Structures are given as structure tokens and as C-alpha cells.
Amino acid sequence: MAGPDGHTLTFFMHDILGGSNPTARAVTGIVTNPALSAQVPFAKPNGANLPINTGIPQNPGNSGLINNNNVPFLTGLGGTTGNLVRSNDDKFIGGGYGFPVLNGGQLPSGMTVQKMMFGTLTVFDDELTEGHELGSRLVGKAQGFYVASSEDGTSQTMALTAMFEADGYVDSISFFGVHRTVVSESHLAVMGGTGKYVNARGFATIKTFPAPNQALTDGLETVVQFTVYLA
Amino acid sequence: MAGPDGHTLTFFMHDILGGSNPTARAVTGIVTNPALSAQVPFAKPNGANLPINTGIPQNPGNSGLINNNNVPFLTGLGGTTGNLVRSNDDKFIGGGYGFPVLNGGQLPSGMTVQKMMFGTLTVFDDELTEGHELGSRLVGKAQGFYVASSEDGTSQTMALTAMFEADGYVDSISFFGVHRTVVSESHLAVMGGTGKYVNARGFATIKTFPAPNQALTDGLETVVQFTVYLA
């Protein structure tokens, strides 16, 4: 994880929306708006059983879990519109990540789904791994939230703490900044740290890409690569 | 924008609630609480067609846009109670900014609108300009959120990243702190920065005032002057 000079770290964060084991949950915004449940249409087969008329994305009919049918409705860290590709057993096997495939016909004039996402707050508890695969060696957890903070829905203001497992999660680095999904790399500021990172300063570059092996989860995974440069 | 010593910056942030091109959206709190829709009365003519029973401030009857009728219900960065002055075509032309004019008669005993705003989370994507007018030269964007964080509704806890356009938004400064609307000036701490502001430390003073030329937007604009002192 640490670079040769001890001041550079790299790790991968796995953000999973929907599926049977989501690590991120949208708690405000369009997903919680009952009035829109009848107005936002989805391309088949993703449109069935949307739970948005229950206020928050809980589906009691599915043991309280967010199910695959929700995924296209959520805004994640990927941000790229694309076609979701599913296997025959309805798992995501590749394709687009981030914003959903939608029928736009019934949206209010001038409104896009991305615009409607502006303001959506998503809380996460994501695994950090050494390599980019979800099954790679676990190095810690990242907890925090991101808020869709541009009017076109392509930016997320992020506040998070990355906690490292090695010494019982005492070592942590906290970050704040804006993740812009329209550029290949965004920068977050280091707010501070604890444990061996106490008084940390510096920044991180973050890059998102679709999960290399989506089959490991039935949710919609976005992998975020962090490269941290400490002063 | 930069001061003579290169360590002081000033810029102006334009926060627009409501209207056809809002830059800020309240996503939690009273505006999203349907249970209060029947309880919060408004002085005419501002009380018509409040969308609060739709969960988030979307008004499908107005092409999905937040309209002027919403504005008096939102809590912004201005914070001053005052009379909203409207022209004959229902545009704001001056007067109060911030908390609305209300009939208090039907509020629960001991409750004021300001108190009810406590906890409202507002996400913003505001333009930063060199001068105080909305049409002044654009220097960047500020994205983040503010939360009404005093029981009397006069303070906003703010977390934001100011991103500067010059080098493709790589240069940024992130701030955290409490904006107290009852004093003329508040201070925010610099959490850090990126690009040429990496490892930034210091603080900013912020002052709010009503838009100098409200006619440029049909929303309710608050101008926030930032003066940043970097160590």
C-alpha cells in the first residue's frame, strides 16, 4: 500500500449500490420522493417494483434489501451513462455504471435524470483493498458520504475517512473535495488524520472505473482508485 | 482575485434558491416533510401551491422547476427576515432575503419558522465571480452543502470546495465552519486544498448581502463575499 518513500499510498475503494449487499445507500433526493414514483419511467426490465414510494429505498418485500431493480435509479460514483448488461439470471455483468438507462419521454420539460439527482446524499461503508479486485487483500474501510453537487449531476462532493485495519483502525486519513465524473481524475484535499497519520496534510487523486469483475457482487460496483500524497 | 502578496483571495459566491435556474436545493428538513404541509401557513400571496407535500421541492405543474412560490419557504444564506417585494409580473425586485414573511398564528405553540428550519440540508453549485454582480467575470464554482445548525435557524454549518477555473478546476480550497447570519461577518476554517493550493491552511471571512441586481435571476439570490487568508 505504501510507496517506497512512505509518503504515497494507493488503495482501491469498492462502492456498491443495490444488490443484496450494498455498501452505499442514498438517503435523500429523488430516491426518497414519492411524488416522482409515477413520473420517472425506466427502460425495461429495470423499471419493476421501484420502492421509491416507501420514502427511503427499503423494500420490505425483499427482506428490506435494495434489490437490483433499484440500481438504475441510484446515482453512484461512476457517473457515466451507459447500458447495463445483465446475465440471464439478472446479475449485472458489465456495461455502464452510474446513471441509469431511462425513457426520457415522461420527464418534465427541460429536466434530465442527472439534474434531478442534484442534492442526492449517499452514505457509504466501503471496503478498501490493496488491488483493484473486490476479492483483493482488505486493507481497511472508508466511511462517509457523497452529495450530488452539480446541477447536471456529474459531480459529487465527498467527505470520508479511510481507516486502516493494521492497528485496529486507529490509523485514518480524512478527505474532502469534489469528485468530477466528467474528467479522468479528481483531487481531494486531506483534512487530517489519526494514529500514524496524525497531522496529515496533502491530497489524493481519485479515479473511478467499472468493477473489473462485476460477478463478485449482484449490486452495481464502482471502483475508486485513491493515490494519496502526504506532505 | 489574488491579493498583492499572493496569499489573500477575494471572490463572490452567488447562491440562488428557487426560480427557473436555482443553484441550491434543500434536500432535507421542513421542505421535505409532508406532515407539515397542512400546518405551516403563509402570508398571501406567497402561500399558494407550496410543493412540500411532494417530498422534495419539485413542482411538476411548473415543468418540474422550483417556482417563486417556493422561495419564501426556503432557508438560504441571507438569514434576515424581511418583506419580499415583488413587481407586477411576480419577480422579486428587492426587499428581504432569507426567512419568509409568515402568518404565525397556526404554528405550534412556541415554534417559529426559524426554529423549524433547524436541520435543513441544502446542497449548492454556485458560481464564483470576481466582482459582486452575478454577471461579473466567472472565476470558478463552489460546490458543497449547508445545514441550518442553530435552534433558532440563524446559523448554517457549511462545508464546501471552491474550485478555480484557471487550470481546469484542479486548484481548489475546501472550507468548513459556521456561518452566523446574525453577525456581519463569519469565519470559516480552511480544511485543505488541491493543485496550487495543496496543503493550504488559513481561514476565510464571509459576509452575505442581498443581490445587487436581483433582476438577473428570478430566484432568490444571496451574494456571499469570501476573503481568504492563507498561511
Structural summary, described in words:
Two copies of one chain form a homodimer. Chain A is mostly beta strands. Helices cover 2% and strands 41% of the residues of chain A. Chain A has one helix and eleven strands. The first copy, chain A, has one helix at 113-117; strands at residues 8-17, 24-26, 80-86, 92-97, 121-129, 138-148, 155-164, 171-180, 186-194, 202-210, 220-230. Residues 34-73 and 80-106 of chain A have low confidence and may be disordered. The interface between A and B is large, with 41 and 42 residues. Chains A, B: Its main location: secreted. Chains A, B: Belongs to the plant dirigent protein family. Chains A, B: One of its GO terms (biological process) is phenylpropanoid biosynthetic process. Chains A, B: It holds the Pfam family Dirigent.
Task: Give a short summary of the structure.
Two copies of one chain form a homodimer. By secondary structure, chain A is an all-beta fold.
Question: What's the structural blueprint in terms of helices and strands?
Answer:
2 copies of one chain form a homodimer.
Chain A: E1 8-17, E2 24-26, E3 80-86, E4 92-97, H1 113-117, E5 121-129, E6 138-148, E7 155-164, E8 171-180, E9 186-194, E10 202-210, E11 220-230
Antiparallel strand pairs in A: 1-5, 1-11, 2-5, 3-4, 5-6, 6-7, 7-8, 8-9, 9-10, 10-11
Summarize this structure as a short list of keywords or feature phrases.
homodimer; apoplast (chains A, B); mainly beta; Dirigent (chains A, B); 2 domains; 41% strand; AOC barrel-like; 231 residues; 11 strands; eight-stranded antiparallel barrel; secreted (chains A, B)
